[in-house]
Amino acid sequence: MDANSTAVIGRRAAKNIAVIGVVGCLAVTSLAAAVSCAGAALSTKADILSVDRTNKGNRLPLAPNHTSTVSSPVVTTLSRPPIGCEPAFSRAADPKRSHIFGRCIS
What we know:
By secondary structure, the chain is mainly α. The protein contains one helix and two strands. It has two domains: 1-44; 75-106, no CATH class. It has one helix at residues 3-43, and strands at 85-87, 101-104.
């Protein structure tokens, strides 16, 4: 490399650094302007809104409770659970209810 090619590389590097600096300054300036505009928008006083709540308790009546026609779960007294069923209660936690099976895969 001779002195002339080193000077060209130096000029290109300086030009690139200048372009990066200008773009960076523009980005920072636009960000600062956006933040200051957002702050000004937040500091403006909001309009006071009056809400009439006199009829707030005037609601539709609740649906009447329907009695369930589903029969109670079947209680079986088996020594081993059926295949695909798991007990509703643990034998260690509640041995009196360990014969009740809760979920069965059908």
